[in-house]
Specification:
It comes from Fusarium acutatum. The chain is mainly alpha-helical and 205 residues long. It is built from nine helices and three strands, in the order βααββααααααα. It has helices spanning 7-18, 25-32, 55-76, 81-91, 94-104, 121-150, 157-161, 168-188, 195-204, and strands spanning 3-4, 41-44, 47-50.
Length: 205
Amino acid sequence: MTFCANFSQRVSECESIITCELSSKLLCAEALNRAADANLATVIDGSSRWTPKNDRLAAVYGDPAAAYHLCSLWIKRGLSNHCWTTIRGDLISNSNLAKVRKERGLDKCINMNGGSGYTSPAMVATAVEAILGAVEIDGGHEALARIMDHLGLTKHALLASVPPQVPREFRCNLNAWFAGFATMASQERPGAAPSSLRLASELAL
């Protein structure tokens, strides 16, 4: 059995870096655990707990959760499939997640095999994915979106180049409103079409 006595400190450091306090400290501890020992015992808030390795939070949950949020940003902007491939590869690839580790210092929070201090880029990328998964489970999609913004995982030139499109149901309401307004305007001033009305009508299409 492996024993790690300072996980409360690691969890606190991680929460400080990502600017998010998780209600489940054990979930955050799991996200930070890279030790392969299935019998890892950690001390969280003075209590000893069994803590599994972070693989399930990373590959099974964290990676798809992060991809889903990025995909929602991509699809709202009406970008092409090629743009999605580029955005995903640039923002949530192992190399970029390792870069986030270097900039934010998350590697210092990770528990390694046998207390090893070495963390490879793949190990750190897995931990970042697991942290994102833990945040989504603990606080929902809004919490995940906020943390990804904070870590720079939504900052991409392609996403910044196009504003989010107006939701379809809102466009339908706008179209009905503009049609009624245009009828009124044409009755009052035949042939007249205010520039603001034309612009708004184009936006609603």
